[in-house]
Amino acid sequence: MLLLVFAVCPLALAQDRGESHLSEPISGVVFARSAFAHGYRHGYEEGYHLGNLDINMGRLTRTKKGQLRGLSLGYSSAFGPRRSFEAGFHAGLKAGYADGYDGRTFRAVELVRSVAGELKAVPSTADPAGLYFDQGLGTGYYDGLQQGESAPADFHEVSCAQFHPQKREDLPAEGSYCEGYQRGFVLGRSDAVALANRPALEASK
Questions:
Q1: Handedness of CA 34, 38, 44, 50 (dihedral sign)
Q2: Which residues, in sequence order, are CB contacts of 137 under 8 Å at separation 6+?
Q3: What's the pTM?
Q4: Long-range contacts from 53-62, C-beta under 8 angstroms, 24+ separation
Q5: Rounded Cα–Cα distance for residues 155 and 185 (Å)
Q6: Segments making up each domain of the chain, as ranges
Q7: Range in 20-34, 59-73, 138-152 with the lowest mean pLDDT
């Protein structure tokens, strides 16, 4: 009897388990290539529902980071580096909570779609695992968050931060890093504008 063995892609497994974000039109390509962006989407969703619930229940807005613990991370190893996913989750959680509590629209989907333009589903050969793209997106997010409203709102106008590959042979991955950086920057800038008049979350004491 002939036994056939098929290799199953981790991404395909994640989709089979009902991970709908990866199949979202347009934005799914960003989530598939960046654990940070994917974590952001999960966190935003959790935060938005929690903020919406709090305002509808007449509760005071949460001001401590510890008050946002215990939520479902929804992580799978198929999504990429856990540390990056978690960083994105916490960034999205804060933004989503603020939007839900303040009665703004659920903007995460359209926001990611707006930066997904021209992005190929297949990573570059210089960055096959998408690690530099993901790193760039996370770094860009925090730079955009810091610069805020005065920064460019169009990712085409964002200058790429200095690239620091760990090995000389990784220099060709600069383009992939910059693709991620520009898109993350615009996500961060958008959150900076949305969170501008809200108190920053303090560490729990």
A1: negative
A2: 30, 34, 36, 37, 180, 181, 183, 184, 187
A3: 0.84
A4: 53/100, 54/100, 54/101, 55/100, 55/101, 55/102, 55/103, 61/101, 61/198, 62/97, 62/201
A5: 7
A6: 22-194
A7: 59-73
